[in-house]
Amino acid sequence: MKLTTRQKKYLYWLVSIVSIATITVSVYHSLGGFEEIKVVKSSNNIYNIAGKEYKGRVKNDSVNIVFNEIRSLVIAGKINGEMCVINYHDEGLNNNEIHQFIGILLGDEISEIPAGLSVREIKSATTFKVGLGMHPTVMPNTEKIEAVIQSYAIENGFDLEDYTLEILFPDNSVMVEMFVK
Question: What letter does residue 138 receive in the DSSP assignment?
Fold first, then answer.
């Protein structure tokens, strides 16, 4: 059976679409897009974080300036630790506003804290964590992870604090942690 020009065109488009879909799914898979989001319960956590607070519009250069300032301290080795962000969920904020504490999770060796930074301590007998090791392109956003943790906590009878800790590791992996009241 000989194919008409019209049938050849449809066959070409079908093969093209199937090929593109296969390549897209393969790339998504290789970047870690199908990794399971697993909530882990942790006990007796105490974190000391040196950093700066930011409260204001999401799309503002000030938040980027604070983030880059803290990041440069880590890169230069002036403070040993991991970059982190505390996201506060204030009810008084508008949709385009955030309240964050951008800082460095201090390790066991306490560094001298540069002027202009404050230190916050977070303690909780119980926390829930999600580790995200996939490529940032396919990584779910923090709001989606918070929703997963909140539903897990509700299912298990826990009430959570109104903030989230994101720990940003040098290999682009992220750990999102929420604390039980």
Answer: T
Give the tens place of pLDDT for each residue, 122-156. Answer: 999 999 999 998 888 888 888 899 999 999 999 99
Using the 8-state DSSP alphabet, how is residue 172 labeled?
S
**Alpha-carbon gap, residue 146 to 4, rounded angstroms:** 55
Q: What is the pLDDT of residues 9-54, one digit of tens each?
A: 999 999 999 999 999 999 988 888 888 889 999 998 889 999 999 9
DSSP-assigned letters across all residues of 51-99 = EEEEEEESS-HHHHHHHHHHHHHHHTTSS-EEEEEEEE--TT--TTEEE
pTM over 0.85: no
- Rounded Cα distance between 135 and 169, Å, is 12
Nearest to 85 by CA among 94, 95, 98: 98
Core vs surface per residue 3-21: b (16+ CB within 10 A) or e: eeeeeeeeeeeeeeeeeee
∠ Cα 45 134 31 (to 5°): 175
Q: CA 165, CA 70: separation in Å to the nearest integer?
A: 16
What digits encode the pLDDT tens for the residues 47-77? Answer: 999 999 999 888 878 888 999 999 999 888 8
